[in-house]
Amino acid sequence: MQDVDVRLTQVTKAYGDVLAVDHIDLEVLPGEFFSLLGPSGCGKTTTLRMIGGFEQPTSGLIELHGEDVTWLPPYQRQVNTVFQNYALFPHLTIYENVAFGLRRKGVKGPEVEARVTEMLNLVELPGYEKRKPTQISGGQAQRVALARALINRPRVLLLDEPLGALDLKLRKQMQVELKRIQKEVGITFIYVTHDQEEAMTMSDRIAVMNKGHYEQLGDPETLYERPTTRFVAGFLGISNLLGGKVVGAADGYALLDLADGTRIRVSAALVAGRSAVSAGVRPEKIRLNEETETVPAGRNLLHGVVTDVAYIGVSTQYIVEVRGGARVMVYEQNLERATKSELWSRGEKVQLSWNPDHTFVVEASPADAPNDDAAE
User: Fold this and answer.
1) CA 271 – CA 149 distance, rounded (Å)
2) CB-based contacts of 215: which residues, under 8 Å, 6+ apart?
3) How does pLDDT run across 97-147, given as a tens digit for each residue?
4) What integer is the mean pLDDT of 286-308?
5) Which of 267 and 272 is assigned the larger pLDDT?
6) CA distance 235 to 52
7) What pLDDT, on a 0 to 100 scale, did the predictor assign at position 151?
8) Taking the alpha carbons of 329, 330, 334, 336 in that order, is the dihedral positive or negative?
9) pTM across the whole model
10) Is 82:160 a contact under the CB 8 Å cutoff?
11) How far apart are alpha carbons 275 and 257 in whole angstroms?
12) β-pair type (188-193, 205-210)
């Protein structure tokens, strides 16, 4: 049986009539960078706080390293937490902030100095020992908070949106640093965020949460390339969803007829016996061609008219209204078409094509035509 650092079994948290966490079953593996991803109010922070002991579940079981800790207080669990506001002591030096946990445990003398030095080197802040929290930047404060949490060598580190207060550039730098530090120390990280790029950059696995439970759990590539619900497809990036009826199968593909009669192909394994589904394709998977151009055989093909163009630097974003009224978003890298005169123009007739293997499937919905989500 595979070792598990954290196990939640049918964990529920209710605040009066409001069910914040709804019967979650979850396993986090040793040394894993695991993220709880979702919008505000989905239950991700409440789940993290229950693992840390800051909230008690209404029902269910929480185990750390095989031990039932459901009702234990935080200080009796082998976990530490890094909060969004860092919670550094403003009157203490950086050295004493980092050493705080050791001193509470009664550690003294050279061991304190050695471990503080080790932690400050790990977070790349040697030489900052004598500064106060007011004398360092937000990014440096985040590193100090991380060093303070790691110095007691917890089995699991909980991180509650620790990068939320940083600007975009620094946030991206810290994503790389957090992953580096996690790999160096080998400690299990459980990370809460509403930022899908943040989760995908750092995580080994992600649980995408919605309304108190997770809708899908997997590695970043699987969640992005093969979302299984409409919520996951929309929360992890942009998705074009087109409603269709399954009309047959050929060569390992299911055949779908869209609202306008256009037939596309999708892996038969994804349809799983359903008669009506929504076929999804990511904007960057689609290629635009002139209406009269020959498209390679075997690709899914739609016809439409460009209704909106937005140049966004690395790529150009197009909205194309296809036959049947659905609006499809397309991202085209600015390689061949780099100047304004070379871009597709509003009103231009185009073909949209993509590899059938890049099509995913979610539950059907009348809202797919027209595809309003793609144009938001």
Assistant:
1) 46
2) 208, 209, 228, 229, 231, 232
3) 999 989 988 888 899 999 999 999 999 999 999 999 999 988 899 899 999
4) 93
5) 267
6) 27
7) 92
8) negative
9) 0.90
10) yes
11) 11
12) unpaired
Cα–Cα distance for residue pair 155/306, rounded to 1 Å: 54
Q: What percent of the chain has pLDDT over 90?
A: 74
At 61, the amino acid letter reads L
Quote the CA–CA distance of 50 and 213 in Å, as a whole number: 14
Task: Name all domains of the chain by residue range, CATH numbers in brackets.
Answer: 6-225 (3.40.50.300), 238-375 (2.40.50.140)
What is the spatial order of strands in the sheet that 6-15 belongs to? Answer: 18-28, 6-15, 59-64, 67-68
Q: Shortest CA distance to 171 belongs to which of 243, 113, 84, 66?
A: 84
What's the one-letter identity of residue 139? G
Residue written as tokens 């509650």? 160
What is the enclosing helix (H) or strand (E) of 201? helix 196-202
* pLDDT, tens digit, 9 for 90 and up, residues 19-53: 999 999 999 999 999 999 999 999 999 999 999 99
Cite the DSSP H helix spans in 15-137.
44-52, 94-104, 110-122
Residue 120 contacts residue 126 (beta carbons within 8 Å): yes
